[in-house]
Amino acid sequence: MPAEPHSTASYSEEVIPFLAGDGRALHLIRIRGDAKPNKGPVVLVHGAGVRSNIFRAPVRQTLVDALVADGYDVWLENWRASIDVEPSEWTLDQAAVLDHPAAIRTVVRESGHDTVKAIIHCQGSCSFAMAAVSGLLPEVDVIVTNAVSLHPVVPHAAALKLKLAVAPVARLTPYLDPQWAFGPPTLTARLLTLLVRAFHHECTNLVCRWSSFTYGVGFPVLWRHENLNSETHDWLQQEFAKVPLTFFHQMSECVRAGHLVPVEGFQALPEDLAVREPETDARFVFLAGEQNRCFLSESQRRSFEHLERFRPGYHMLHLVPGYGHLDMFMGQDASRDVFPLILAELDKPV
C-alpha cells in the first residue's frame, strides 16, 4: 500500500436536507466545481454502515472528481444507513420506499432536470434497485450498480455465518460497530472485539479487521489490500460505524432465497420484485470486481441476465479483474481501471 498524492480538487458543497417518507431527517450533498455542469444530475448512493464520503477517499482522483470533470451535477445521498444520520434499525424496504424516492424528487426539484442518473453501491444498490424495479423511481434513466443488486450471492462460509450467527448476536446487541475498535462500550462489544483480534490478523488496522468480521468471511472482505494506498487504509478507520442486525436478518433471507425479499409488507414493493418484469425503463449497468469476497460477482451476473430476458441488449455487465468490493471506488488505480467504464456508460445516449 504505497503512499501517493491524493486529490487536491476543491469544490463547494451544499447540504440539502430532505425528509424520508416516514419523516426521518436525511440529506443530500451537492458538489459544485469551478465550472457550471453541462450535463444533468447524477446521484451517488453509499452502502451499509458508511456514508456518502466513501466516494471521496484520499486517492489521486476520486469518482466525484471524475464526474465533475466530465460535466455532471454531482449529488451524494445520505440515506438512513448513513453514519451521518441518526442510527436506526433499518431494512432495505424502508430505504426503497421511504428514502430513495424522496431523495430523487429533491434532486429533480433543486436541479431543474426531469431525469437523474444514479451510481449505487452495495446495500444502497439493493434498496435503490428494489425501488426502481417496483416503479418508485420513474425519474431515473440510468443506474450504474456496483457489487450487488437484485440477486445477492455470497461465499458458502458467509452464507453459513448469516444463517448461524445473526440470530444469537441480535439477542446480545441491536448493532455491530467497527468503531468498537477504539473502545468497546459494552461486554458484548468487548467480547466481539476480542474475537476479531483473535481471528483477523490481515493487517494492523483494527477497523479494517472489524469491517471484515462484520460484512462476511475473508481477510479482508471489502477490498484487496494491494489496491489501497496507505492513506486510504488509515482514512477508512473513520468511515465505518453502526449497522443494525435488522439488515443482516433481511440479507440472510435474501441469500437463502437467491434474490431480494421484502420483509415489511409495504404495498409498494411486490413480493416477487426480483422475478417479475421491472417497472422501469432505466438502463442498468452492472459492475462487479471479479475478486469480490463480500458479494460474489455472480450476484451481478444473475441480475443482468434477469433484466436481459425482458429487454435484450439494453443493459450492460462489466466484471473488473483484480478488484473486490469497495476498492472499485476507493482503489488507488480505480481512476484508471474503473471510472472510465462508469463515465462511458453514463455518457451513452439514453
UniProtKB/TrEMBL annotation:
InterPro entries for this protein: AB_hydrolase_fold, Cholesterol_Oxidase
Protein name: Esterase
Keywords recorded for this protein, A-Z: FAD, Flavoprotein, Oxidoreductase
Protein family: Belongs to the GMC oxidoreductase family.
The keyword Flavoprotein appears for this protein: yes
Names of required cofactors: FAD
Organism: Myxococcus xanthus (strain DK1622)
Keyword field contains Oxidoreductase: yes
A Gene Ontology molecular function term of the record: oxidoreductase activity
